[in-house]
Amino acid sequence: MKAIGLYKYLPIEHKESLIEENIDRPVPTQRDLLVKINAISINPVDVKVRSPKEKEEEALKILGWDACGVVEEVGPDCSIFKPGDKVYYAGSITRPGSYSEYQLVDERIVGKKPETLSDAEAAALPLTAITAWEGLFDRLGIELHNKQENTNKTILIIGGAGGVGSAAIQLAKLAGLTVISTASREESTKWVKELGSDLVINHHQSFRPQLEKFGYSEVDYIFCLNNTDQHWESMGDVIIPQGKICSIVENSKPLDLNVLKSKSATFVWEFMFTRAMYQTADMVKQHELLTSLSQLIEEGKFRTTLKETISPINADNLRKAHEMVETGQMIGKVVLESF
Q: Where is the Enoyl reductase (ER) domain (predicted)?
């Protein structure tokens, strides 16, 4: 089968930063599905893992985590899916990725593809939607189906126009929250408003003065999707006493937790690979949330965040997509489809 990956960690402009090879098709065991890949999307984690470093791989390292495809074979312990099922998922960072014609993935982190979406539209969603869902509902403790309680509560989503932000805005609105997103450009501001953001502020400026112009001095929840180090002091300033902050962006310098002490505020990380990486007892929750997301999509309550599609799936086009994501200016998601 065709697979695209790397041996050396090089700048994306280098021809060998991503290369194509023919390798053996894997065989499913235990609860694995063998999925024939139809479409994949590119995330910041793809770029981060591929980024230049002093290391070489002995075997082709296959990147990629978002995928949509069809189940070809199932392992002997599978009970959720069968051959022929159309699926979408974000996979595991500890296993070979989705830049290949076929991929093995544990069925407990796989969802049934929404029937109303194309393969490309579905492939744009899993990693970012899982991250948004877990961040909002598992880490921040917001209840999706309790609009009455959430009506008077606010959430600040830092970096609203990216893939995770695009999903988080929609989910937070479904939960009944007042959504305040950050965006810094005209096109990104327009995008977050289209998705349902009630208010928009600029993350390159101090948060409090901008919030006060809209009648808010503090917010109940903060979901940080952009530069935790840069926004740490501002987040501590505007979080309400006993409020909650969740970030998906690792810090590069120590965070002063004393900023949150007097407010008894909560800080928590979200990393969507945790359940698959550690084979947690509740690993199947990712299957369940992707199933719930599919239902929301079928009901017209959630839309794909796909913004651009490239075809076919090959090393040249993957390098182009990586370049797009590396700019840090992406709105929504870029997807590659068809080998």
A: 17-336
Q: Domain range holding 264?
A: 131-269
Number of other residues whose CB lies within 10 A of the CB of residue 278: 10
Q: Contact, 110 vs 290, CB < 8 A?
A: yes
Q: Which of 91, 89, 78, 82 is nearest to 49 (CA)?
A: 91
Contact indicator for 154, 238 with CB cutoff of 8 Å = no
Q: What predicted TM-score, i.e. pTM, was given to this entire model? A: 0.96
The DSSP bridge pattern shows strands 32-42 and 66-74 to be antiparallel
Distance in angstroms (rounded) separating the CA atoms of residues 167 and 165: 5
Q: How many domains does the chain have?
A: 2
- Which distant-in-sequence residues (6+ apart) come within 8 Å of 239 by Cβ? 218, 219, 222, 245, 260, 263, 265
Query: By C-alpha distance, which of 68, 79, 235 is closest to 158?
Result: 235
Q: Could you state, in chain order, the average pLDDT of each consecutive group of 10 residues for the chain (339 residues)?
A: 97 96 97 98 95 95 97 98 98 97 98 98 98 98 91 96 95 97 94 96 95 96 96 97 97 95 98 97 98 97 96 97 92 95
